[in-house]
Design goal:
By secondary structure, the chain is α+β, with helices and mostly antiparallel strands. The protein has a single domain, classed as Alpha-Beta Plaits (2-Layer Sandwich). 35% of the residues lie in helices and 25% in strands. It contains 4 helices and 5 strands. The chain has helices at residues 13-22, 30-38, 65-74, 76-86; strands at 2-9, 41-49, 52-59, 89-90, 102-103. Strands 1, 2, 3, 4 and 5 form a 5-stranded antiparallel β-sheet that branches. The protein is globular and about 45 Å long.
Length: 114
């Protein structure tokens, strides 16, 4: 299943550069990558335009966002990573209080067009 999520970054060139550096291959701590994979996320990409980020996740049938959130809250490595990312990330104004990233709704699919 594909999931698309959005969040903003602090609109500061230095903060954006630091955020990007933290996401280069090998820069994300291995326990964080392992927790993503263990949750049933088979692929994840983050794209940026300006200070807006879009995350695209491909999940398998074992993925449960509530179970992932509970596992993250209990994992000191993930909590440290999220604390670090909090320095850069800015939830969208309409984001729920429980989630930093906001789900996007699909409006169009070429495959569904005649």
């Amino acid at each position: 299943m594909r999931q698309v999520l959005l969040i903003d970054l602090a609109d500061e060139a230095e903060a954006i550069a630091r955020y990007e550096a933290w996401h280069k291959p090998g820069a994300v701590p291995e326990p964080v990558v392992a927790s993503i994979r263990a949750a049933g996320i088979s692929d994840m990409e983050i794209h940026r335009t300006g200070n807006r980020l879009v995350m695209i996740m491909e999940t398998d049938s074992s993925f449960d966002s509530r179970r992932k959130a509970a596992a993250d809250a209990a994992d000191p490595d993930v909590r440290a990573w999220e604390s670090l990312m909090d320095q850069f990330q800015r939830p969208l104004p309409w984001a729920s209080a429980e989630s930093k990233w906001t789900s996007a709704s699909r409006l169009f699919s070429l495959q569904e067009q005649p």
